[in-house]
Amino acid sequence: MVCAVGWFAKPTHPNTANIVSSKYLREFLDEMQPDQIREHLRKFTRLPHLAGTEQNLKYAEQIMKEWQEFGLDSVEMVPYDVLLSYPNKSQPNYIAIVDQLGDEVFNTSLAEPVPEGYEDISNIVPPYSAFSAQGQPEGDLVYVNYGRTEDFFQLEREMGINVTGKIVIVRYGRIFRGNKVKNAILAGAKGIIMFSDPADYWAAGVQPYPDGWNLPGGGAQRGNVLNLNGAGDPLTPGYPAKEYSYRFSLEDGVGLPKIPVHPIGFHDAVHLLKKVRMNIHTNNQVTRIYNVIGRIRGALEPDRYVILGGHRDAWVFGGIDPMSGAAVVHETVRSAGRLLSKGWRPRRTIIFASWDAEEFGLLGSTEWAEDNAKLLQERAVAYINADSAIEGMYTLRVDCTPSLHTLVYDLTKQIASPEEGEEGVSLYESWHKRDNWTNDRDAPRISKLGSGSDFEAYFIRLGIAAGRARYTKNKKTERYSSYPVYHSVYETFEIVEKFYDPTFRRLQAVAQVRGGLIFLLADSQLLPLDANQYADSLRKYAQSIMQLAQRHPEEMETYEVSFDSLFSAVENFTVAARDFHVRLQTLNRVRVMNDQLMYLERAFIDPLGLPGRPFYRHVIFAPSSHNKYAGESFPGIYDALFDIENSADPEKAWEEVKRQISIAAFTIHAAAMTLIPPA
Amino acid sequence: MVCAVGWFAKPTHPNTANIVSSKYLREFLDEMQPDQIREHLRKFTRLPHLAGTEQNLKYAEQIMKEWQEFGLDSVEMVPYDVLLSYPNKSQPNYIAIVDQLGDEVFNTSLAEPVPEGYEDISNIVPPYSAFSAQGQPEGDLVYVNYGRTEDFFQLEREMGINVTGKIVIVRYGRIFRGNKVKNAILAGAKGIIMFSDPADYWAAGVQPYPDGWNLPGGGAQRGNVLNLNGAGDPLTPGYPAKEYSYRFSLEDGVGLPKIPVHPIGFHDAVHLLKKVRMNIHTNNQVTRIYNVIGRIRGALEPDRYVILGGHRDAWVFGGIDPMSGAAVVHETVRSAGRLLSKGWRPRRTIIFASWDAEEFGLLGSTEWAEDNAKLLQERAVAYINADSAIEGMYTLRVDCTPSLHTLVYDLTKQIASPEEGEEGVSLYESWHKRDNWTNDRDAPRISKLGSGSDFEAYFIRLGIAAGRARYTKNKKTERYSSYPVYHSVYETFEIVEKFYDPTFRRLQAVAQVRGGLIFLLADSQLLPLDANQYADSLRKYAQSIMQLAQRHPEEMETYEVSFDSLFSAVENFTVAARDFHVRLQTLNRVRVMNDQLMYLERAFIDPLGLPGRPFYRHVIFAPSSHNKYAGESFPGIYDALFDIENSADPEKAWEEVKRQISIAAFTIHAAAMTLIPPA
């Protein structure tokens, strides 16, 4: 019998004091260097590396080799065979204007003008909507704004326009493109065209690339148009796509649109005002993809996992999406390797992941989550996501689960602001100054997680505490969607180097945030997760969902809808969380209490899933049913409230609201129980 | 920092050596005494104590008080408000033979003849089918044997008899009565009568009660006729039935039959050969029930739970079902309390449960499992069930998960045979001699868990290692179903005392098995769970399910059905299990490896559930879809194979077989991964 690290221990500091406890943290953060990140980004953005292509496998092999050289304990390549979708090389996709004889009098462009320096590159996939149905529908074109639920409602109810049998054209932005396609299908459209409107993809006073970072008129946004709701590979929902896996037929696949879909740039969009014909020949095919998984074995708790994962596949070069993120992960691995060589070893196991096929529906990360679900649900402490590390030049942006808020604040106080003229200013201060959470507290804004990146299966399906961090724009003044060149050929190394982060200090700061989170989650004796913050957030969410219901005061009375049980559950949780953190001060069983913290997020998982969305199982957070990018709190109640507006049977609709309130109350009560002393 | 019990430790013995390691085990087993068990049984069988009645609450309060006196650390009463069903006191249920004028010319009896000594007892509920629909259907009677799927098929296909609009009469036995009712509904019957046929409820050469233990002709079997498939309270499936819980309407409740159902004895049954009228006025009502939960706090791993649970509610006195089991639990608690007073404290937490409303669909145990699911899935090591402790006078019967086999064998070698003339013979030897597992190994037979008692939610929904033990009849020579007086008024204290176990040594042996299992699971440093046994069982099940498929060799070729992936997964699992147990010999991280053992059973849970049965989630074991009492291995594959016989689209049906093979193979692969070193 050797000595008791892990089970019994009396720490000298309270929970947050963990942060200063490691003499290696500073060294780890300081090791991450702008020049190194620049190098990594340069190296992995020379060639297009779409998921399922030779070049993306080559980059995987290179990452694997370098992670091994950096000193990880193990690195492996993990393949899956998933459904991908590519344009047909011999029959290009385009939209044509047809005259009354049916002749095509104008065709949209077949490719984007290639940026300078990349003229000789082959294998640039033209703009397309991955997983579009094939077909050549022809018909009148109807403009439906952003293609949101409310846009279709307005068209039908207020303007009396029925789009059944029509082709709709919508502008990109505001919501996930897959939701636009779903709405168009529900409305009866036989095709959908999406375009990048300068109103949404043009920053004022900025030149188009290469003279600035705006989207040229010939540029267009690629992207998948699935409605997977967390299923991963459309043919193997719930299970990993391996050799022995049963695959559904394409007709039974999850989330595949039944109509042709195509994206165009605004130079083409201005022409399309009449009758058009879509010519779409995109093919679905089962294709091998590769995740790279690297590990550092935990010294004391090898069966507790902290994961840093981000994707590698890109629509073209991936200068921003995702390689600005992948370069940051690479640098984090390098820095961790350096520490290992100096004798450091984290308390818990760290897993680094380079995911494949994120752009095709978060496939690599979801298949790996499905493959390892049983291990992850017992052992995973946290998942930090590493997609694009920069989408603007203003300040830090963090989306994470409430239990990570305190850690994010504490950590960013130890990282320097990357902004010029802010020497000696912490990232926290710089961020706080630029994006104060003015509505209810004096602290930098942290948002809810939605979806649209690889954390989804970990957080929303499995209930693992999760977060993401990147550099962003000024939301108040910059109103364009994402960043202008998003998913176009103009996402190059040069756009980052010339415009977004010439010193690479912003990417360094993001590396330090992502890496620092991983470091502290893996190496602190007490897990730096904060149940009190969860309690605060639950109260806020409960108030706001109740306010939504209270827009219908008469119905609430008629149908006896009460939120009392929800607030009582939140109150229970608040007391349990407070008591838990008081006990943490005097704890003598580290592992027991760390397990309580680790499993707190899991406690919000309902194995029955949300209505109609079996892979979205988090009762507190889910992607909005109307916009996958946005996170909804109390999604079950929210959707039930949304439906009462459109229900033919209001009594039944309100019954569903009541049922969802009850499920939320039960789940929070149950989560509170996980925080009380276990026996 | 104190010393390292739990996390790091080097044991001197291999895994099974745990068993002899506790100096307290012998003392614990020896403390359990026949006279004490007789006392407990006497005490709790004086009055009828149906779920939801005053008397059953009184017994709950008495148990709570006595468990406190025995010395448990805490005992609490946990109420739920669930749907129960009672006969209408002012309008009795009965079946009438009607003549051509519609007059009732014969009525079945309204109650069983009350046994001697109990004449003054009120509140004996007459025989009825709990949750029957109300109604007075009238029609021709059709006899459908046991009412099994194959009985209805034979009637329809071979004999050309259609039961649509008819009242069917079936004999009790072979399958769970709820399955008979479901089959009758599917066949279109408008009512169903069930009777106890002497062929199934009469032991040769035995007198009817009170002169022997056979069922008198006026006796009848009560019982619920739900098809819950693990849902618990029909109105709150998936969630505990608390004040704030949303309740479905009766129409939307789970598993409630839509036709009247009634049980009769064989004295009445012989009359019913013509046209009958059923008069059923049974009411469903939400009623408060009470579980009693007692705890002994674990000294070293308070967050690891070992559970001994059994029900308390009875149809009438419950002399056998369940109080023979409850008396055994009571004695186990008393013995554990004695040990506590001598300074013993188990390593892990022990939870004792007296469940309510088992007879109404495992309601008390399932609601508590739903209430505590989040804690149980992270913390529960094992669940041992304690329903009726005796159903025959021949030998031991054990049904359990494969990982418990070794422990059961090791433990029963340390318990004395209760049989006369077997002084110095172990229970193991006595059992082995009487029920050798001759088909594939030389050891006493252990069976699969089916359902029909309170382990269901713990094992089949949550994936907690589970088992049950009782004294049973000689299956080879005694062909009657369960035991003759099952669920009748004749289940008294006296039937146990006079016939089943006059010395109470059989019940003592069962107490020692159930108690010993709990003791060793809670107190062994290394969990006494055996992954190798699971591997052996998986191979056996895989072979037998493949043989079932191979009855269709041509279709298997046509539809390319292969079991290779399943056998490859079993092989993987076998290697992982073997390596795991080799590593156990030299382990230095007890908690890490114990967690691997604890979570092994959990690894067989598929969160998506079995097709159409969301609360049956165990991929290896589930109650048969055709008989809830029986356990099916590879239930998903089994049901898919069953369906091909009746499918209009064989290709689709075989696709489902292939899908289920793939799910089973994936699950076993994934379970194997849980056994390899965690990092």
Can you put this structure into words, describing what you see?
With 679 residues, chain A is an alpha/beta fold. The first copy, chain A, has three domains: 18-84 and 287-523, 3-Layer(aba) Sandwich (Aminopeptidase); 86-282, Glucose Oxidase, domain 1; 531-675, Up-down Bundle (Transcription Elongation Factor S-II, Chain A). Helix content of chain A is 36%, strand content 16%. The first copy, chain A, is built from 22 helices and 18 strands. Chain A has helices spanning 18-21, 23-31, 34-43, 54-70, 149-158, 177-186, 198-201, 266-269, 323-341, 363-371, 373-379, 405-412, 427-434, 456-461, 493-500, 505-523, 531-549, 553-558, 564-584, 590-602, 635-644, 650-675; strands spanning 74-86, 94-98, 104-107, 129-130, 138-143, 167-171, 191-195, 223-224, 261-264, 275-279, 283-296, 301-311, 348-355, 380-385, 395-400, 465-472, 621-623, 631-633. In chain A, strands 1-11-13-12-14-16-15 form a seven-stranded mixed sheet, sandwiched between helices. In chain A, a hairpin with a 7-residue loop joins β17 and β18. In chain A, α3 crosses α9 (323-341), α4 (54-70) packs parallel to α9 (323-341) and α19 packs parallel to α22 (650-675). The radius of gyration of chain A is 25 Å and the shape is globular. Chain A starts with 17 loop residues before the first helix and ends with a helix. Chains A and B meet through β12, α11, α19, α20 and α22 of A and β12, α11, α19, α20 and α22 of B.
